[in-house]
Amino acid sequence: VRSFVARLEAERTAFQEFVELLKSEENALLQGDIDRLAALAQLKSDRLVELGQLAHQRNSHLLSQSLPADPSGMALWLQTNAAVAPTARAAWERLLELAKTAQQLNQSNGAMIQQRLVNNQKALAVLQATANHASLYGPDGQTRTSSTGRPLGKV
Prior knowledge:
Layout: H1 2-31, H2 34-64, H3 71-80, H4 85-132, E1 135-137, E2 143-145
Antiparallel strand pairs: 1-2
């Protein structure tokens, strides 16, 4: 029982660290710090693997107690383990709060990334259009435009 509570505390701590990574990612996005974003992506990936392992351990323990591997199973476990319930309940409730915060931050960061992608695609389209209409030199050494439109000032 105590080892389960310790793993629950470890999961809460890991979630807290994940939320901090998401906040760092948010700051890097706001500052346009691409190098920092690349480093954070790997750290986030590593933390997600750890969180998945910790959740698997929690769910396995609940299943071994013939409880559902979900929040209702955790609530039942807390009811049947009154001796450690206050500590475990505090860790579990904080873990749920952190999971909700992580979800909100991740959605917000994803929206910022999507907006940057749209802006970059628009800028690239402008640059490509400009490059397609750039002046070219003809065989006589005179500049020619690649446009097929009518020259300005001519009828």
